[in-house]
Write a structure and sequence with these properties.
The chain has 3 domains: 1-66, Dna Ligase, domain 1 (2-Layer Sandwich); 68-113, no CATH class; 125-351, no CATH class. 55% of the residues lie in helices and 8% in strands. The protein has a 4-stranded antiparallel β-sheet. Strands 5-6 form a two-stranded antiparallel sheet. It has a two-stranded antiparallel sheet with strand order 7-8. Strand 7 (87-89) and strand 8 (92-94) form a beta hairpin. With 359 residues, the chain is an alpha+beta fold. It has helices spanning 17-25, 46-49, 99-107, 125-135, 141-154, 156-174, 180-204, 216-219, 221-237, 240-248, 259-278, 282-288, 293-306, 308-323, 333-351, and strands at 2-6, 11-16, 34-36, 44-45, 71-73, 80-82, 87-89, 92-94. Helix 5 (141-154) crosses helix 15, helix 7 crosses helix 9 and helix 9 (221-237) runs antiparallel to helix 12.
Length: 359
């Protein structure tokens, strides 16, 4: 029986089962590494494919994280539930909460739960946008939050570690005397892009390590830096009319009582608010599909604008979940922020879903 496995960077195989077991014993892969063989509907973790060989599993004892007796893993949210309470489609199981989006994907011809390979790059931005808008998308806020939350919860330790390290690096860059502002602008793009790709992999069920959150420094530093700077520039440009008018009316702070100034400022804030939400997935597209800065911003804006208020509502709810950490103490937000990133990454996957294609 021949197997394939994913080592975190590439697909390896076909190899005999004995060689797969040797790869696990030598540490080339771990219990969470994805494996597949002919006859299986989708890629699954090693611990589920060969539970008796998983490290730490004793005779008759399921390895940690694998389904227990009478349980199955939902192909959407990756949670474990009693199989009797789930619906089954071929070899796939779906929990009650994920049933609506699963059926929707089936109606759209999407192979749910199956591991898929990357589509060829580069992706034409206009073609990509047309493809998404033509098929349409329906972002179910409740389901998206549930799936993103469960994906992070299943690997909370590594998600927390990645989030905290990226946050600390961003803050450290800004605290360097004299150069802090410029250094922060230079590294915030790659740091954020790396974290975006990390959580995309989390919601897709791919193997991840804390170090993956820093992938932005090796996969496209200048692309991510340019995307972040261009996004900030375009959002900031909307303030120029109000700023120019305030400069003209600066004498005796006359602009403060001038209704024209407040109209210009209100318009600027509305534009900034709109673009802030519309550009939300630009760095996700830049790292996942390797789009250039302008293309990533345009694709994100055009696609999000189709259902801007739904995306806005999801971001608000995700942010409120992250802010729950403030109820205990200020530092508590550190422990809830990974769920924000996971939910947004799940929204990206549900809206775009083109980082992968059918194998």
């Amino acid at each position: 029986m021949n197997w394939y496995y994913y080592d975190g960077a590439k697909q390896v195989g076909p190899i005999p089962e004995a060689e797969l077991l040797q790869a696990r014993q030598s540490g080339v892969i771990n219990d969470s590494s994805l494996v597949w063989r002919e006859g299986m509907a989708n890629w699954i973790p090693f611990r589920e494919a060969l539970p008796a060989a998983a490290v730490g599993a004793g005779p008759g004892v399921p390895p940690q994280g694998a389904p227990g007796a009478g349980e199955a893993q939902c192909c959407e949210c990756r949670g474990f539930f009693p199989s009797a309470d789930m619906i089954r489609h071929g070899e796939l199981f779906v929990c009650a909460n994920c049933k609506p989006i699963f059926l929707q994907k089936l109606s759209e011809g999407i192979v749910t739960g199956a591991r898929r390979g990357r589509r060829s790059l580069p992706v034409d931005p206009d073609q990509l946008t047309h493809e998404i808008l033509s098929r349409g998308y329906a972002l179910n806020i409740g389901t998206c939050i549930s799936r993103g939350f469960n994906a992070v919860k299943a690997r909370y330790g590594v998600c927390l570690g990645a989030s905290v390290l990226i946050m600390l690096c961003n803050q450290a860059a800004g605290m360097i005397p004299f150069l802090g502002v410029f250094l922060s602008l230079a590294v915030s793009g790659p740091l954020t892009a790396g974290l975006c790709q990390f959580f995309i992999n989390v919601v897709r069920g791919d193997p991840v390590t804390v170090g993956d959150a820093f992938s932005g420094f090796k996969t496209g530093f200048w692309r991510y830096c340019g995307t972040m700077l261009l996004m900030l520039l375009l959002i900031g440009v909307s303030l120029i009319p109000a700023g120019i008018y305030a400069g003209i009316r600066f004498e005796n702070a006359a602009f403060v009582e001038d209704p024209i100034f407040w109209v210009l400022l209100t318009m600027a804030l509305v534009v900034m608010f709109y673009l802030g939400v519309a550009f939300n997935f630009a760095l996700y597209l830049a790292t996942d599909l390797q789009l250039g800065p302008w293309a990533a911003l345009q694709v994100s804006r055009r696609v999000v604008s189709r259902h801007w208020f739904v995306v806005f509502a999801l971001l608000v709810v995700a942010w409120l979940i992250a802010m729950l950490g403030l109820l205990g103490c200020l530092i508590g937000v550190i422990f809830t922020m990974p769920f924000f990133y996971g939910i947004v990454a799940q929204a990206y996957e549900d809206i775009f879903g083109l980082g992968q294609g059918v194998a």
